[in-house]
Amino acid sequence: MSGTLVLVRHGQSDWNLKNLFTGWKDPDLTELGIQEANTGGKALVDYGIKFDVAFTSDLKRAQDTLKIILDNVGQPDLKTFRDQALNERDYGDLSGLNKDDARAKWGEEQVHIWRRSYDVPPPGGESLRDTGARVWPYYLTEILPRVLRGEKVLVAAHGNSLRSLVMVLDKLTKEQILGVNLATGVPMVYKLNADSTVASKEVLGDMSGAH
């Protein structure tokens, strides 16, 4: 058996709460988001894991979630790599807009296509496929080799950057991934085989909060 890969979506951010498209914008966590990160950290303590290295995005909400989790597991000084390859999907012209205002401007159906299609990007932004096109190479070159060497690796990132990883790990089709929502602050623990396929997957905590 090779190593362990743990994926965590950041806790609720201020803009999640306000129903705004966030993308590469950089709002803080809310009180609930901090609580979600703490809950995720406690779940990892209960699971009994210690990490060798961590990865996160260039955005504060993921970095802060990671810091809270590492404080919980007693590894505040863990070696950490930050890279915009793990950033949330760039929503382009939608960034900072209220989702209801966007629907009023472009229509319910068009906004739904931008949010939920696999390969149709919003104006000036990225589709899920585009997001995967920067996440996958980074995973293959920077993260996966460490897991295959037997390391325990923690990745704190975003709904769409992690969905593009989950799509590959769980062998989901581009239709199946559209129905997948990742709960905020809930760790997903993958054990990988030597050939990089998934030996097991465990979700730590209550999934009822998924949205």
Please describe what this structure looks like.
The chain has seven helices and six strands, in the order βααβαβαααβαββ. A six-stranded mixed β-sheet has the order 3-2-4-1-5-6. The longest helix has 21 residues. It starts with a strand and ends in an 8-residue tail after the last strand.
Computed Rg: 16 Å
Largest sheet: 6 strands, mixed
Please tally the helical runs, counting DSSP H or I stretches of 4 or more residues: 7
Low-confidence blocks of residues? none
* Whole-number count of domains: 1
β-strand amount: 5-15%
Q: Output the CATH class name.
A: Alpha Beta
The helix content is 25-40%
Total strands: 6
Mean pLDDT: 94
Question: What is the element string, with H for helices and E for strands?
Answer: EHHEHEHHHEHEE
In short:
The protein has helices at residues 14-17, 31-47, 60-72, 99-106, 108-116, 128-148, 159-169; strands spanning 4-9, 53-56, 80-82, 152-157, 188-192, 198-203. The protein has 211 residues and is an alpha/beta fold. The chain has a 6-stranded mixed beta sheet.
